Amino acid sequence: MSKAQRSIFVGKKTYLDELTNDLKEIAFHCRMKGITQDVIALTANQMFPDAIQVHYDEKKGLFFPEKVGEKYSIVELYKSLYEGDEITFDLCIGSKPCFNKNKDFTISTKSSFERKLKF
């Protein structure tokens, strides 16, 4: 049985739950308005390289750390947002491509599509 060990509620539709089970395994469940799950993990790992890195498992819908420890990159990301820091997320670094519709009805691939969040 899994339960939330700690939670961080940053704002509307933006939260993180640290889950543990009977075997002391750790996973994270989180949401962030307008940001895809894989972009959350990649941004957290880039911003906090000294913390324990996480990866997103699409089948389970959870984030899993590389190992058990005290400081996780995804927790540090949510703490930073909670403290009022502005964070820029590049939506094109995820697994889904970003496209731009041009005025001449052509479609081009975006190399960068940034969204800034601050609470």
TrEMBL record:
Q: Which InterPro entries does this chain map to?
A: DNA/RNA_pol_sf (IPR043502)
Protein name (database record): Uncharacterized protein
